[in-house]
Fold these 2 entries.
Entry 1:
Amino acid sequence: MVTVALPKGRIAQQTLHIFEQIFKEKFEFKGRELILKKAGFTFLNVRNWDVATYVEYQAADIGVVGYDVIKELNSDVMELLDMKLGVCKVCVGGIANDDSYKNKTELTVATKLQNIAREYFSKKGIPTKIIKLNGSIELAPLIGLSDVIVDIVETGTTMKENGLEIKEDVLEYVSARLIANKNSFVEKKPQIIKLYESMKELV
Amino acid sequence: MIYSHDIPSETKLYFGKRAKLKREIEAVSAEVFENNEFDEIVTPYFSYHQQEALDNVQLIKLNDPYNKDLTLRGDSSVDVIRLIIKRLKSNSKKWFYIQPVFRYPTKEINQIGAEILEGVLYEAIKLNKLLMDKFNIKPIIQISNIKIIHILEKMGISTEDLQKGHLENFAKIDWLKQMSYIHSLQDLQDLSIYPEEIRVELLKIKDIIQNLDFDVVIAPLFYANFNYYDGIFYRFFINNVLLSMGGEYEIEGIRAVGFSIYTDNVISSISK
C-alpha cells in the first residue's frame, strides 16, 4: 500500500485525473472526505503547505506539491518528477515604473515565502527586513508596508491590476513535483517506480 | 522564560519503564558483544579530534587549560579507533561501547557502537541484525555504496540530482536509469550495462549480500554525507526511524568496519 498526499484543490483534481487515466477507474474525494482508498493507494487530502511535511515524516510515502513549497520549507524529500502542473514563477514585485527600491541600503520585503526571499537577496548581498504576510501580499508596497514583495506569479494580472509590476525573477520555473519520502523510496521502490513510469507518460 | 520543569531541547530523559528498557537494551547488547569476543571501551566525553568525524557546526566547542580547541564527543568511532591504536596499543580487533554523543546546541544521542578493525562488513551487518532480533524489531535493511555516489559526481552527475533523486535526469543515461531502479539481489544479476568503475562497486554490494542469510534492499544511489564511511554502508530503519547505521572506513591507515545503534530510536520503536 502506497500513501499519497495531495494538496486540496486543482492540483489534487489534476493528479487524480492522472490516476484515472492510469488505472481506468474513478478517483474522487467525496464531499469533505480526507482519506480515499483505491487501487492499492491511500490518498490524503491535505493543505498545500502540509504535503511536503506529511511526506518528509512518512505520514505519506509520496505526494504532489509545488516546488515553491519544497524550496521554502527546505523539505528533505526526493523530487522524482516534474508534473508540469500549476506552472508559475516566484518574482520580486514593486510599484510600476518606480525602481527607487534599488537605491535603498536595506530593503523591506513583504512575502509569505520568507526563506526564498531571504536567500535570494542574501545571494545578491542586499540587506533585507522580511515581513511575513499570509495573503494579499500586493497590498504591502501600495500602503508603504514594504518596498517590494516576493510572491508567486502565474499571469501577472493581479500585480498589474494593483499598479505593480515584476521587477526580478527569483525562481523562473515553479511547478508541481512528485515527491517521495527517502525511506519509502528505498522500501517501496518497485511500486513507486511503477507509478512514476506511468505518470511520466502522461505529464 | 525557563520553567523549573524545563530541560534543554533534544536532551534525553528516561524514567520508569523506558529507563528500564534502555538498561535492558544496553545489557542485552553488552552480552551479545561479549559472547562474540568484543572488548568494551568507554572514551572521554571531551575530545580534540572530532572535526575528522563531523562538521564543525555540529560540535559543542570548549577550550582546554591551554586555550586549545576541544569539543564534547559528537561521534565515538574516531576516538575509539585512535585510542585503541595510539594509546592502548591493543591487539584486540573487536570493540564495543555504550555511551552518548553530543551535538550542537543541546542534542544528546544514546548509542551502542561496535568497531571491528580489519573486519568485513557482512560480519557487522549480521551482528547488528542479531541485536535487532534480540530487541524483537524487524527493520528494513538497506545496503548502499558511497563510492558509487563519488564516482557519479566525478562523471559530472550533479550533486543536486543525486541528493534529490531526480529520476527524470537519470533517465537520460540508460545504465544510470537502470541503476536508479535497483532494489533486490536479482537486479544485480546482469551488470554488463554498467561502466567498469560502477560495475566493480555494484559487485562489492553483491558479494556482501551473498554472505547474508536474510532479506535486504539495495539502494545504490542513496545519497549521504559521511566524513568517514568511504565504501559500502548500510542502514536499519523502520517507520521512518533510523535504528542503526554502519559501514566501511579507514582511520589511522587501518581499514575497519563499524556500526552504531541509536538507542533512543530503538526505545521509541519498541515502545510503539
Entry 2:
Amino acid sequence: MELSRREVHPLVSLDYRVRVPAMFIVGLVLLSYFWDFPKSLMLWTAIAFTGLVWPQLLYLAARLSPDSRAAERRNLLFDSFLLGCWAAGMSFCPLPSMMMVTAILAACLSIGGGRFALSAAGAVAGGALFVGAFMGFHVNTETSIATTILSVLGTFSFTAIFGYQSHVQTRRWLAARKELAAQNERIQEQYEVIESALQSALEANESAKQASQAKSAFLANMSHELRTPLNAILGYSEMLAEDAVAAGHADIVPDLQKIQTAGKHLLGLINDVLDLSKIEAGKMRLYLETFEVKTVVDEAAVTARTLVEKNGNRLEIRCPDGLGSIREDVTKVRQVLLNLLSNAAKFTKNGLVTLDVSREVGVAGNWVFFRVSDTGIGMTPEQTARLFEAFGQADAGTTKKYGGTGLGLAITRKLCHLMGGEIAVESDAGRGTVFTVRLPGEIENFDGDATSVRLTTQPGVKLPAVTGVAAIAGVAAPSRGRPLVLVIDADPAAGELMERLGGREGFDVAVARTGAEGLRLASERKPELITLDAILPDMDGFKALEALRSDAGLARTPIVVMTVVDDRDRGLSLGATDYFVKPIDLERMAAILARRRSGAAA
Amino acid sequence: MPRILIVEDNELSRDMLSRRLEKRGYEVATAADGEEGIAKASADEPDLILMDLALPVLDGWEATRRIKAGDRTARIPVIGLSAHAMAEDAERARRVGCDDFDTKPVELPRLLSKIEALLARRPQP
C-alpha cells in the first residue's frame, strides 16, 4: 500500500514534464493578451497561478491518490475546464483560444483516445459556459502582435511535442512487437523440445511395458515347460518308493523321499513364479462374488489350524458376528489369509497366532481389515523393508531354516493390490509381527471381467491407515513393555493421530470409541496416559472423566481432554491434567508424550 | 473291473498314471490327443475318463464338450486335469461339463478318492 502511493503511474510524470512548460507558455500568452487591460491584482494572480502553480498542484493530487492513473485522467479534465474558462475570459480571441484548445485536445486524444477527448471537449465547453455566464459571450478578434506571435509559437511547440511523442510511442510499439515475436519463437522452440522429450519418454515407457510383459509371458511359458518333466520326476520317484517297499528294498526309500521333497519345493517355486508373472503380465483375472466374511475366515482357519498347531502354537480367531459380506474374489482372499497364517505359523514356536477381523465404515469408505499377529521371531526394520519383494526373505539363512520359496509375501501383496486393497507389516525383532490387510468392503461399477479392481475414491479423502498398532498391543503388550496411551474418542481421526504421535514417542496406543469401552480398557490395561473427548456417543465425556478419577488405580494417571468443547475450567476442576481444544496442537501433545515417556522410563 | 480312459499327450505322464491305476486294479485305456479321446470314448464307452485339458489336435475343453454332447457318451463321468491350480481352470472345466477337476502333478490318493466317488455314483447295471 505504502509503496503504491509513492510509485506513481508513468503517465503522471510524463504529463508533468509536458504540463510545466505548456502552462508556462499559456501563462505568457495570457500575460500578453491582458497586458493592455486595466491592472487588477486578481487577474494577475489568476495568470500566475495558471502558469506556475497549477502543474505542481495537479502533480501533488495525482501522487496522493491511491490510483494515480485515474487521478491523472481527472487532472486532464481539470486542465480542459480551466483552459475553457480562459478561452471565454479572453472573449474567444481566435488565435490564443485555438492554441489552448488544440493543445489540450491533442493531449487528451494521445493519452485517453477519442472518447476521453470528447469528455475533455465537454470540460472545455463547461469552462467556457461557466465564465461566459459571468462575463457574457462576446468575440474579440483584435489582438496585439506579441500575443499573435506567442500564440503561433505556442501552437508550433505543442504540435512538435505531441508529434514527437507519437513518434516515440510508435518506435516503442514496434520494438515491443519485435521482442514479442522473438519471444514467441523461443517459446515455440522450447515447446518443441519438450514435446519431443515427452514423446520419447512415452515411447520408452511403452517399450519398457512391452519388455516387462514379454518377460512375464516368457516366465509363464517356462514354468509350464519346467513343470511337465518335474511331474514325471515326482510321479516316478513316488512309484519307485511304493515298488521298493513291495520288493523289500525299504532302505532306498529315504533317498527317494529326498528326491520328492526337493521336487515338491521346486514345484512350489515354479507355481509361485507363474503366479507372480501372471499378475505382472496383467493376466490374473478376478472372479468377484458376494460372500460372508466369516465364511472365508472360518475356511482359512480350518486349513491353517494344523499348520499353526504343528509348532506348538495356539490359533485364535477374532471374527465378530455381523461383519456382513463383501464382494471380492473369494479364492484370492482365502489365498491371502492362508499365506499370512502359514507365514505366522512358520516363524512362531509355542506362541500365539491371531487372526483379527474388523470392518470400518466411514467417510473414507467401507473397509474390511484382516490382522494376522504372531508372537514369533519378528523382524528388524531392515528386514521388514525388503519383505514384500520377490525373494526378499529376511536372509538366506532364514530360507534354509524355515523353508518356503521367498515369493509368498510378494504374491500376497500383489493379490491385495489387485483386489483394490493394501497390506502393511509391523514387527519387533524377537517379539512378533503383525500383518494388516485392508480390502474394500464394497466394489461398485465393476464388470467382473477385469484384471484389477480400481477404486473410485473422492479426492482428498484419506484412506484408513493400514496399521496393526492396536493389534500388536493386544497380542503382545504384556511382554513388550512399551507404555500405553489410551485414546477415548469416537472420532477415528483422533485415534489415528494419537497412534502416529504415540508410536513415534515410544508408546503403544489403544483406542476406545465409546465411554463404556474406554472405562473398561482403562481399568484393565492401566495406561500411562489417557486422552478423552468431552463428547462421546454413549455418555458425557465429563462424566467419564469423573468416573476415571474415582477409580483408585487411575487416580494418578494423567488424563488429557481433547475436544471441540471449550470448557477448560470445568475439565480441570473435574481432574483433567491438561485440556486441548481441537484441532490438536501437535507439538504440545508430542511434548506431553515425550515428558511422560521419560518419566515412565525413569 | 471299472475301465478308465486316460487322455494325455505327455508320454511319461500317461505311462506313469496308467501303471499306477492298473496296479490298483483298474482296466486302463489311453489316448494321446482330443480326437483319439473322443473316438475311444464312443468305441469303448469306459466307466470314467481322465482328461488332460491342454491337448494337441483337439484340446481337452472341446473334447469334453463333445463327449458330453454325444448320446452314448454323455453319461460317462469326466475328471479334468490341468497343470496349475488356478481357480479359473476349475471353473472353466465345470462349464464345459467336467464332473470334477484335479491338478497336476497328480496326488494319487486325492485323485483316487475323486475317481471312486464318481464311480460310486454311476447307476448300477
